[in-house]
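Task: sequence design from structure.
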């Protein structure tokens, strides 16, 4: 059964239409004017379909159709008219009408048209939901086919099912939280909560109550007891992001929680047991940060360690990662799937990405919006080193420029450079250049 809005200024015809729709198993709500229906759309949950007469005093059917299409709704509109002509039909269909029927209409045909439109709307909604699911899953994918990235994924797969706390170290934007979520998803705790805490973003004065919770009356304003993040993660995984920013006094309290697997709320004297797996991430090597981070807490957190690779280590994956996020951005902004020419892929690989994957993602979105500008300054250029290093850097740039000119065709590039193709391939391997265009090796 679908919920329908029926709009008709002729009260007898409106009653007959509503009776017909109810007899067909739908819930019909009648309106004597387009404005009344539009007001109801703004005030109530939208129906599954709107059936309206074309010619009405005040707001006509076409005006109502255009007003509905301006709303952020997927609402099919079917128009009825006793004055049908080709011009009106074309105008209605161009304005986005689902169908256009002339009076007198065949009741069975009208019911069939409505059933088809309602089913098509339901299909669009389901497709949209599935696409959103795919986008959300894709956002959580750890991408890359390089040896370093495959080894990183293998390590995550091996650690995920183990009941061991994990410390993930890596530069900003290398996907440490993605790795933490993958560890949680691959564990027996996957159906439990995943609670993330950014230790760098919590104010010092609130850190203790947010992490450990408090009893009612523990401090002014604490009108009721509240569990902390540690208790909220019970049965699941607690992510301590940027754990290196945790204040020293609280490190001792966290160490006690990890040792006893129990938490004491602020203002209480008893311990509450917690069943949690802790995953911590850090931008710095905690073994070297002995002045700001307790070594005993480091050893407690680092039951196993992961190091997320930088883009410098997986440069060959940059075009793949860029293409992935560009495709997601294209879907989000309603743009066509992007085409990444060979020259652009080469520029992406040569560019320095201090923000790692996060920066690549932002650049891919800018590319889809036509805002990406890869400046020459973004390309790595070796200006220091011995004469041999500088000559090698010059040779690499010249080879890359010729490959750019021939879109990666190594046969033509070798002819232009006056080199045997085998020699060119050797030099490309030596300088880390790759050919992905037509005619490449």
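Answer:
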């Amino acid at each position: 059964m679908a919920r329908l809005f029926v709009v008709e200024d002729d009260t007898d015809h409106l009653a007959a239409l509503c009776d017909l729709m109810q007899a067909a198993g739908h819930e019909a709500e009648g309106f004597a004017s387009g404005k009344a229906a539009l007001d109801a759309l703004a005030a109530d949950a939208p129906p599954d379909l709107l059936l309206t007469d074309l010619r009405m005093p005040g707001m006509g059917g076409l005006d109502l159709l255009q007003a509905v299409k301006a709303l952020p709704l997927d609402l099919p509109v079917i128009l009825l008219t006793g004055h049908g002509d080709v011009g009106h039909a074309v105008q209605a269909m161009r304005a986005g009408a689902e169908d256009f029927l002339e009076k007198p209409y065949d009741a069975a045909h009208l019911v069939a048209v409505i059933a088809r439109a309602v089913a098509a709307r339901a299909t669009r909604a389901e497709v949209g939901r599935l696409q959103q699911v795919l986008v959300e899953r894709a956002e959580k994918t750890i991408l890359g086919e390089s040896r370093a990235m495959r080894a990183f994924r293998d390590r995550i797969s091996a650690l995920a099912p183990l009941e061991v706390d994990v410390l993930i170290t890596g530069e900003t934007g290398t996907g440490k939280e993605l790795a933490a979520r993958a560890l949680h998803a691959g564990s027996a705790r996957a159906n439990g909560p995943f609670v993330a805490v950014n230790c760098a973003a919590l104010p010092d004065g609130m850190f203790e109550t947010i992490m450990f919770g408090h009893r009612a009356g523990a401090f002014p304003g604490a009108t009721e007891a509240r569990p902390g993040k540690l208790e909220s993660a019970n049965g699941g995984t607690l992510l301590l992001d940027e754990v290196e920013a945790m204040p020293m006094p609280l490190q001792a309290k966290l160490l006690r929680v990890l040792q006893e697997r129990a938490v004491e709320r602020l203002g209480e004297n008893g311990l509450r047991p917690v069943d949690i797996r802790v995953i911590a991430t850090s931008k710095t090597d905690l073994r070297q940060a002995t002045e700001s981070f307790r070594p005993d807490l480091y050893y407690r957190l680092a039951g196993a360690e992961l190091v997320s690779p930088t883009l410098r280590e997986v440069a060959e994956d940059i075009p793949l990662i860029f293409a992935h996020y560009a495709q997601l951005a294209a879907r989000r902004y309603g743009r066509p799937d992007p085409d990444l020419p060979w020259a652009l892929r080469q520029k992406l690989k040569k560019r320095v990405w201090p923000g790692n994957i996060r920066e690549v993602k932002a650049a891919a979105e800018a590319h889809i919006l036509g805002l990406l500008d890869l400046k020459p300054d973004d390309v790595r250029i070796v200006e220091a080193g011995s004469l041999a290093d500088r000559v090698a850097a010059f040779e690499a740039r010249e080879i890359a420029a010729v490959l750019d000119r021939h879109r990666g065709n190594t046969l033509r590039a070798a002819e232009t450079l006056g080199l045997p193709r085998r020699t060119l391939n050797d030099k490309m391997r030596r300088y880390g250049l790759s050919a992905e265009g037509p005619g490449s090796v």
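The two ends are 60 Å apart (CA to CA).
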